[in-house]
């Protein structure tokens, strides 16, 4: 029985979608090092590869019925790490102001407190809201455009307004999704009949 259970856990862990998510996570430090060292074309290629694995892991998980709890945790974790690493890298090379880094980090610091509250009531992270997915999409579109504006300076007058439109829209949605998440947390806590301290 224990052997069958271990096999089942192993099979859930080593699915193709989960391995793709792990590859995406492994590429985060590679991307950040390339970005900080101003290897912009290689950084964009790495980001493109990460985006491809992001599409494939979701598609294959649904097509092959390999949706796992691990995959549901890895996917948003990888997205956040790419957002953070890109923000840090772009701020380091002076392509974006520091305030945008602070604004996005502050939102996730706020949600980190919400995760602790949920854990105290015996709950894990709540499902990702579509607003959060849209915000992530907008932010992850803005970053390659900002990098391309840095590489192709002649196209920068056209690329920068588009990049900043995605970035500011993404920041707005990111915070909106954060407040929606806090409201969901409040409802879960309020409707939980069990005393968290009991």
Topology summary:
Elements: H1 2-13, H2 16-36, H3 40-63, H4 69-92, H5 98-120, H6 130-151, H7 156-191
Give the gist of this structure.
It is built from seven helices and no strands. The protein is an all-alpha fold. Helix 6 runs antiparallel to helix 7.
Describe this structure as you would to a colleague.
This protein is mostly helical and 198 residues long. The chain has two domains: 1-71; 95-193. Helices cover 82% and strands 0% of the residues. The chain contains seven helices and no strands. It has helices at residues 2-13, 16-36, 40-63, 69-92, 98-120, 130-151, 156-191. Helix 3 runs antiparallel to helix 6, helix 5 packs parallel to helix 7 and helix 6 (130-151) packs antiparallel against helix 7.
Low-confidence stretches: 1-7
How many DSSP E strands? Answer: 0
The radius of gyration computed from the alpha-carbon positions, rounded to a whole number of angstroms, is 19 Å
Mean of residue pLDDT values: 83
Distance between the termini: 33 Å
The oligomeric state is single chain
**SSE order, as H and E?**
HHHHHHH
Question: How many domains would you count in the coordinates?
Answer: 2
> Any idea what the shape is?
globular
Helix content class: over 70%
Largest sheet: none
Class by SSE composition: mainly alpha
Tally of helical segments: 7
How much of the sequence lies in strands comes to under 5%
């Amino acid at each position: 029985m224990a052997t069958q259970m271990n096999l089942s856990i192993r099979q859930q862990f080593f699915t193709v979608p989960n391995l793709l998510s792990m590859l995406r996570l492994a590429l985060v430090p590679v991307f950040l090092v390339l970005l900080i060292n101003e290897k912009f074309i290689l950084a964009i290629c790495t980001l493109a590869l990460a985006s491809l694995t992001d599409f494939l892991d979701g598609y294959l998980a649904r097509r092959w019925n390999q949706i796992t709890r691990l995959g549901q945790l890895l996917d948003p974790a990888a997205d956040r790490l790419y957002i953070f690493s890109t923000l840090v890298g772009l701020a380091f090379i002076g392509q974006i102001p520091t305030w945008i880094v602070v604004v996005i980090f502050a939102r996730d610091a706020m949600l980190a407190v919400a995760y602790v509250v949920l854990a105290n009531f015996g709950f894990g992270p709540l499902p990702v809201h579509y607003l959060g997915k849209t915000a992530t999409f907008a932010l992850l579109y803005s970053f390659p455009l900002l990098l391309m504006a840095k590489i192709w300076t002649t196209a920068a007058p056209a690329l920068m307004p588009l990049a900043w439109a995605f970035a500011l829209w993404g920041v707005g949605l990111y915070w909106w999704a954060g407040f929606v998440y806090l409201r969901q947390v409040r409802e879960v806590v309020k409707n939980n009949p069990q005393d968290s301290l009991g």
